[in-house]
Amino acid sequence: MPTYTDMSRCDGCGECVDICPSDIMHIDPVYRRSYNIEPNFCWECYSCVKACPQNAIDVRGYADFAPLGHKVRVLREPEKGVISWKIRYRDGRLKEFTFPIRTTPWGSIKAPSDYAQPDLSALSSPLLAHEPAGLHIDALPTIKKA
Amino acid sequence: MFTNNPFAALTDFLPSLAMQVYIALMALAVVVGTLFDVVHKGSAKFFARRREKSEAAAQRRLSGGETVSLAIATIAEAAVSGEFCKWPRRISHLLMMYGFLLYLVTTVAMIFAYPAGAATPAILPTLWSVGALMILVGGLWFFFFLRVNVAYDGASPFHLGRADLFVGSLLVSVAFALVWHFVQTTHGHAASTRILFGLYMFFTTLLFVSVPWSKFAHMFFKPAVAFQRRVEEANGSSDLPSQSTENYIVRS
Fold first, then answer.
1. Which residues on chain B place their C-beta less than 8 Å from a C-beta of chain A?
2. Out of 3.40.50, 3.90.1150, 1.20.950, 1.10.3470, which CATH number does the structure's domain B9-235 have?
3. Among A129, A121, A130, A125, which residue's Cα sits nearest to residue A142?
4. pLDDT digits (tens, 9 = 90+) for A4-40
5. Single pTM value for the model
């Protein structure tokens, strides 16, 4: 199901335009609110749904069966590290799912460029850059040769 | 410049009554434009249907006190532009909103309370200029750097579209107001003063008459939508998922 924007919730911040990997979330030239310019090309990755700070982006089926009454609503709570989904089925049943999405505060993940450049001698190590400290553990398990 | 009533000298060629009638006509244009907007876009029907749905799906009835408290919370949120999630847009909007209120109130006060010959307290023209400058600072910042189509959608900072009708006409109107006031103070009644006044009037009229095509009416719709959303959250009819009871942020 592709995404669509509830214009009464959208404040035109542009987060969805920035994050859409398919480049189909654009800004409406009349109302300056976001909209999906080509639902057929939506990958349904829901990056914009999760990124929207106003919970203004929903997902819905294509026009041929959307009027049957099903609905999907999304609530992101970055301060709790959670995204919740509310699914309304065509027969009226409602189901809610809550997924933890992270354990660190929103916006706290450092970009690779924010880390110090690893020493070249580390190339011979089986560890990846900044392991194990970057994984918040003391050491990675190793396999002992028989 | 900042302490002179800019409208006092106008009475040499424009009677005070004409200015008062102009203000009344502009207020009427906003009312008619907003009503036209409501009917033409079907927003009233949309809100009525949404309210009916909300009432039908409500899990509990809200008391009068709760409704009043939600209305107060909505007004408090609008007063600090709390609906914006990014602080630059919020500050820019606050500058424009309070600048416009200052500019509007002082204009009306100077024209109605201090017509020709009446001595105007210096605070009014000072606040008028401060309001106009606040609009310009907030508006130009928004126009060139914060407009979402410019900041995120790759449009040129000089791009003009229908979405810019409100902010564009407001900025140009206020800019001409300040330039006209400055030229009037320094050059008196030269032809340039009259031309600048004409341009100021043109863009001010455009601002208020273009309500059906611009986003001027957002100042009435946005608080209504925000209030309805709060009501839906409070009476359990919101279609959003319930808030999580658990916090998964365990590391800093």
1. 83-86, 89, 147-149, 151-153, 155, 161-163, 215, 225, 229, 239-244, 246-252
2. 1.20.950
3. A125
4. 898 888 988 999 999 999 999 999 988 889 999 998 8
5. 0.83
